[in-house]
Every structure is written in structure tokens, then in C-alpha cells.
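ingest -> validate -> predict -> emit
validate: passed (alphabet ok, no gaps, 449 aa)
predict: started
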Amino acid sequence: MSKTIKLRKGFNIRLKGKAGAVLEEVSASEIYALKPTDFPGLTPRLSVKQGDEVKCGEPLFYDKYHPEVVFVSPVGGIVETVNRGERRRILEVLVRVSAGVGEVDFGKTDPLQAGAEEVKEKILQAGLWPFMRRRPYGTIARTSEVPKSIFISCFDTAPLAPDYDFVLAGREADFQAGVDALTRLTPGKVHLGLPATGGEMFSGIRNAEVTRYEGPHPAGNVGVHIHHTDPVNKGEVVWTVNPADVAIIGRLFLTGKLDFTRVVALTGPGVINPRYLKTRLGTRLCPLLEGNLREESKQRVISGNALTGKKVLCDNFLNFYDSQVTVIAEGEEYEFMGWAKPGVDKFSASKTFLSSLFPKKEYELNANLHGGERSFVLSGQYEKYLPMDLLPVHLLKAILVNDIDKMEQLGIYEVIGEDLALCEYACPSKIKVQDILRQGLELMEKELG
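emit:
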């Protein structure tokens, strides 16, 4: 019998444009990309050059400091180009699909009959190791570590987030095999986080401990689950994996081949027809968005959700860990004395406007900040939106002055950007909370490892 943890702190952003329960297969992109910039802390080294032929599953680049961690092509084809930025930093490796190139067969394996090293080696060879991320720091898990537990959040409470019951429908066997493989990598438990109601697909999964969470966003964040179930202390490590990626790992063990299929939720008020699209990891966004964007105002395309995703161009590629694309208006049109109006059609985290009288109404929000950065003061706002026993403002100020001891004492090991994203949304000072936290995490990893 699973236990239920009730969370009172948090906030649900009622954004219009949730994807309908309709799945469509989009026309295949000709070019796919793998981007080193999607992996914090990675220093990539190329395994290919322009013009090389690569099968699906063959390495494109690897981690300079951990060369056993490789990043493989999601399709079979020809390396189109390697895009670089300042100081020749590798930004993306593009592969053009070519018929007949094929894929690598890694061989079937029963994870429950295999040892930990055999499971680890298979995941490494297939290039699926980047799916596993470590806490603290939110970076790719290190192969030399043994995590005390592994967490999988099987629901997402972020604005317009995909429904994983729908996304993974029919892939129960893949998901179960992925969980079985993960159990070999930790002496502790594999934890599944489920919503208080629903999550039927995951409720029957074996070899995992199920905990249900009830409450507003960020109740679906894996960091919240770790904090309330198996907190990270100094010197300890836990790993996290997205549920869609668990299914890819499971598919590898069941068939010996890689299936980089991605079901992406196309969402947001800037989308004419929000729905689910079946595509492939690393796809170009143009086929997903073509003919489906509103033209009344300039739109912002986000790979991910509106709180933590990255702004991209339509010609860019889906980020490695994302199963959602959000489109909202840039909000460049300014309204005179807008703050002084009753605000029936305005949404606010506080009860500033009359819209608070309509708790179920959804809104067409935009990217307008409604002001610039101000003095960073103790307002008590952050604590309302973070269901963790931390002092977020004190932690951020410790980061700003590079006080490592204070950062440790204030719980930096337990959080990454997504955990404080709601604080950034509601911040009266317009502070870039996630950027500051990433700076602190990078400093801690550099100094302490």
C-alpha cells in the first residue's frame, strides 16, 4: 500500500493551451541534432567529423573528463555539420537522415538476470547514460558513483505539462524493463512518484516503491519527492530519470535496439491546435509548429514548459530532456495604467486582481516581466511556493557572495533550478533565481566535486 504525502505550499499557473488527448505522427524531419549545451557541466569531444556516416546508436561525441559517457546519434545518416560558438565551443552536431544506414544492435539482455556491471556497461555502450542525472548538482550521473536510491517522477505539475499516462500508453513492458535495469544500479530503492489520484499505468510496476503526492505545483518535481522521501545530505548521491527515458532504457534491454521515439506535448495559448505529436529525440521544431502558430502577436517558442524551458527559434531543435513545447506571446504590447484596473482578465499569484474570484479560469499569459530587476529583499514570498524545509532567499544570497559553507548549510545539495522556478515567477524583485542557483551549483561542483 503506497503512502500519500500532502503538500500545501506551491501554486498552479492556470495557463491556456493544454494538449488534447490526441496523438498525431508528424512528418519526419530531415535533420536531427544532439546539443552538448543541453548537458550542464559537459566538456564535449567529437567522435565524428562532417561527412561521416553514422548508424543510429553510434557515438557523435563524448565527455572529455569521463570518456566512457558517449552521446549517440538518434538516427542513421550523414553528419551534416558541427555548429560551433565562441572559442570553437561545440553547440550542436547535426545528422541528416539517410535511408539504408541502419542501426546498432546491442543484443537483448534480461536486466534481472544481469549483474550491476553488465547493466551499467550496456547502458554506457548504447549512449543512454546521459538520461541519468545526479543530485546534488543536476548534472549527468558519474559512472564511479553508487547512488543510495533512484527517483522517477511519473507526473508533472508544471504549466501544461504532458500526461505521462497518455505519453507512455502501451509501453508498460518497456517501462517495467527500465525499472528492472535501474534496480541493479543501486543498493537502495527505486522510487516512483505518482499523483494522489490517477497514474494507473504506473501503479502496477514491480520492484519499485510507490509514493503519492497531493498538492499544487511543484508537487510533481522529483526534487520535492527526494526531499520528503530520502533527502540528500553532504557526501550522498541520488539519481533521477524521466519516465519517458526509463522506457527507452527498457526498450534497449528487451530488443537490443534504440527507440528514440518522443511523444511531445505541443501546448500554450500561442498554438492553434494544442495536441500530442509523435516524433523523435533531437527533431527540428519546424515540422511540429508549421501552420499551427497564432499570428495576432509575436510568439515565443519554448522547448520545455513556461517556467523552466529555454527560448528557441522555430528552426532550432528539441532539447534532449524535453517532452513539451510551449508557445506564448512575447507581450510587447504595453497597457497604460494596467495595474490600476480591476483585472478580471489578469492572472496573478497574489489576490491583487478580481480574477482571484474565478479559481478555475484559464488565462492567455505572455512573457512580459511587467518591470525590471529591483532590490533583493526578504519579502516572505519564496517560502509560500517551495514545499521544502529551506530558506531560499538566504541560500541565493549565500550564492551571490560565494559563501560555500553557508550554501551547504542552507541546503543547496537538494535543489536545482526547476525546484525554485515558481519562486522566480512570483518574485516581486524580478530576480533571475534559476541562473543564480546554477552559478552556485557549478561553484560547488568545481570546489567539492
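The chain has three domains: 1-28+111-331, 29-97, 382-448.
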